[in-house]
Amino acid sequence: MRRTPSRRLFTAALLVASVLAPMTAIPATSVHAAAVNPYSVERHDKDDCPQDGLGPKLTTRLDKAIADVREEAHIPGVIVGLWMPGKGCYVRATGVADTATGRPMTTDPFMRIGSETKTFTVTALLKLVDDGRIRLDDPISKYVHGVPGGKRITLRQLAEMRSGLFPYSADPDFVHDLLSDPSRSFTPREVLAYGFKHKNTFKPGKQFQYSNSNLVLLGLVIEKVSGHRLVDFIDREVLHPAHLRHTLFPEGAEFPEPHPRGYTNQTLSGEVEDSTDWNPSWGWAAGAMISNLHDLRRWAKIVATGTLLSPQTQKERLKTLPTGFPGTSYGLGILNSDGWIGHNGSIPGYESVTVYLPSKKATLVILINTDITHEGQEPSSLLGRAITEIVTPDNVYDRPVPPR
To answer: What is the CATH number of domain 5-391?
Structure first.
């Protein structure tokens, strides 16, 4: 259960990391013990999804696949929502929301969604494009001073993860400073400084490198151009028009009830800790937001189909480029994994996946209360793969690379 924090800390937060990121210390075994027990399934009538919504045979296969992954990867609690028009739906919560009390996971809690925040930030940016207030090929230096090589890095390249800027969350000093005091509040400029002290890793546009620095800069662009705080602009221009009433951008460690406890081993000691009340301000435009299953179901289709944007701007968003990882490409704050379009997220204690498959108009949302990897793989990706191998075998999220 030990891991050197700087190897991965806060840099995964994305499917491609595995295809291609008062505190109470708890013993590692307590997560494991709770993760395999109980196997009970919880659902609510308000989910509007029958118990055997995809038919008894398929439902049983999914129940078993999810239970197997949860046991193998030692995941305390899992929420899965799968909606397939013409075939049915599957909404389940299994395992526990709190390993200390055994409180069961339910389908309606608020969850930290990590890098799924990027889909909201980039949507806000693209609304400014639609309004004619910015252009994607503007250099970042036009809006933010002090960016290394900023005159040659465009807003498009930032959103595509092709800027070459060093990821601040991979800086050892940042890792140490955050883990020494997880309740600390960071400003956007403070976190960027950790990355800016490093040389750029490549020339803009030359390759893909996932970097939270890119999205923090885009958040600053939104604030400068709109004249509003990012949290307020996203609330007014994205959340309200999308009718997302249970999605929010916290400014500190606030976390609405109900919510599960979150467990991570991204700690200075490498031991498992409860990270529920850690302050996500360090992630800001790249990873601080909170949502729930039902809002994310709605958001998946909005992002993939461009409901809030002009057709031309959405077309630009969906121009995905290779990431270097087979089967996965990345566009403007959005990924395409074997046809599934959306994003995932990872923040200490929580992981999520929200994706939409246009060919079948299918939506998949996965929410879990741990980010502890299993044999080097994100647990949320293991779940996504197991589910889609059953329901959409021609389109497998995080499809494994075939052996050579």
So the answer is: 3.40.710.10
